[in-house]
Amino acid sequence: MSKNNLDSLNCSVATALELIGEGWTILILREAFFGSRRFEDFQKHLGVARNILTTRLNKLCDKGILERTPIKQGAKRHEYKLTPMGRDLHTILIALTQWGDRWLQTDQGAPVKFVERVTGEEISDVTILSKDGREIKPR
Amino acid sequence: MSKNNLDSLNCSVATALELIGEGWTILILREAFFGSRRFEDFQKHLGVARNILTTRLNKLCDKGILERTPIKQGAKRHEYKLTPMGRDLHTILIALTQWGDRWLQTDQGAPVKFVERVTGEEISDVTILSKDGREIKPR
DNA sequence: AGAAATAGTTGCGTTTTGCAACTATTAATT
DNA sequence: AATTAATAGTTGCAAAACGCAACTATTTCT
Question: Is the pTM of this model over 0.85?
Answer without folding.
Answer: yes
